[in-house]
Design a protein that fits this description.
Blueprint lengths: L13 E2 L4 E2 L4 E2 L1 H9 L3 E4 L2 H6 L4 H15 L3 E8 L2 E4 L3 H9 L4 E3 L4 H7 L3 E3 L1 H11 L3 E3 L10 H4 L4 H6 L5 E4 L8 H11 L2 E5 L19 E2 L2 H14 L6 E4 L10 H17 L7 H12 L3 H27 L1
Parallel strand pairs: 3-6, 4-5, 4-9, 7-8, 9-10, 10-13, 11-12, 11-13
Antiparallel strand pairs: 1-2, 5-6, 5-8
The chain binds pseudouridine-5'-monophosphate (PSU) and manganese (II) ion (MN).
């Protein structure tokens, strides 16, 4: 919501085409209608589309993920920034731009304000998507794997902004854990410190993104969308500071990447990243691309299987939450 009345915001004037303030996120007509009268809405991020998957397959995946949400009886809200406007819910042309335009940037939460002010276009990471989705009133969000603490944290302090943003945002995120390129135990430790709830979906182990299990235990398990909704309701009833709930949903064992291949190829990819001196926002897309190349595309299939499963589960949770109200 705007913090100042319009007359105190000289830089933010109503644009004639949408009759909304320029820096206010634009909700698609379908998402706006769904948020006021149902059906339930599931937010989807766009960095995975623009920077996590190869073109042109990324566009068909983006459409497929929206289709999975619809067939479960919910409305997809893919989030992105286009020409300095934050959008919650994209039309076909907008989805094509995110998937096809290589100049689309990668925007974390902190990048949103500069991107809007500059009139830039970018895909939103988990941190930016969760922020915009929660601000729009969306309660459930799906992605592949969260960002987290990188393996060489003691040297470069690279920790995804996803973690801190989720620690301050009351949204349910369905994901296959955190990316296995990360230091998973350290990331779980950070989530504990930050007060972000984690429940395994049908498992007592934290998923390993490309792998069904990271080998790390989780303290709590739910077995159905309805059980996940009970956790959400209890969390809402308790009140207190906002924080996300992570529903950690493993990729099916038959769809996971071969664990031995994963470990070998990841070690090579981490070496390549170090040798080329890649840092900052480039690290995650580089490592995902390296894994894809070095596994002959097998990591891509495992990633896609994980994302599809997460989107389907997020939609079932959103539908179950709507029924429970
Ligand atoms: N899940 C995937 N592929 C991805 C991502 C998630 O299956 O590419 C993206 C998300 O947008 C997440 C980002 O926020 O990777 C993490 O990037 P970084 O480590 O730079 O914060
Ligand atoms: Mn990083």
């Amino acid at each position: 919501m705007p913090q100042n009345p319009p007359d105190q915001r000289p830089a933010d004037t109503k644009t004639p085409e949408t009759n909304a303030y320029a820096y206010e996120p634009v909700l698609s007509a379908e998402v706006r209608a769904a948020l006021s009268a149902g059906p339930p809405v599931v937010a989807l991020e766009s960095t995975i589309i623009a920077h996590g998957l190869p073109r042109p397959r990324n566009l068909s995946v983006a459409r497929e993920l929206e289709g999975i949400v619809r067939s479960a009886g919910a409305v997809p809200a893919t989030v992105a920034v286009l020409d300095g406007r934050a959008h919650v819910g994209l039309d076909e042309d907008q989805l094509e731009r995110i998937a096809g335009d290589p100049s689309v940037r990668k925007l974390g939460h902190r990048d949103l304000a500069p991107a809007l002010a500059a009139g830039a276009s970018g895909a939103t990471t988990v941190s930016a998507t969760a922020f915009l989705a929660a601000r729009a009133g969306i309660g459930v969000f799906a992605t592949g794997g969260l960002g987290g603490v990188h393996r060489e944290w003691s040297e470069n302090q690279d920790e995804s902004a996803d973690l801190r943003l989720l620690a301050r945002t009351g949204i349910t995120v369905v994901c296959a854990g955190v990316k296995s390129i990360l230091d998973v135990p350290a990331t779980l430790q950070r989530l504990e410190t930050l007060g972000v709830g984690v429940v395994g979906y049908g498992t007592g182990h934290f998923p390993g993104f490309y792998l069904s299990s990271s080998g790390e235990p989780v303290d709590w398990t739910v077995h159905s969308p309805e059980e996940a909704v009970e956790v959400i309701r209890a969390k809402e009833a308790l009140g207190g500071p906002a924080a996300a709930l992570i529903v950690a949903n493993p990729v099916a064992e038959q769809d996971q990447l071969d664990p031995a291949l994963h470990d070998r190829v990841l070690a090579e990819a981490l070496d390549a990243c170090r040798e080329r001196g890649i840092s900052g926002q480039g690290v995650t897309p580089f490592l995902l691309d390296q894994l894809m190349r070095r596994t002959g595309g097998a990591s891509l299939e495992a990633n896609l299987a994980a994302v599809r499963g997460n989107v389907a589960l997020a939609a079932r949770i959103a539908v179950a939450a709507a029924v429970a109200r």
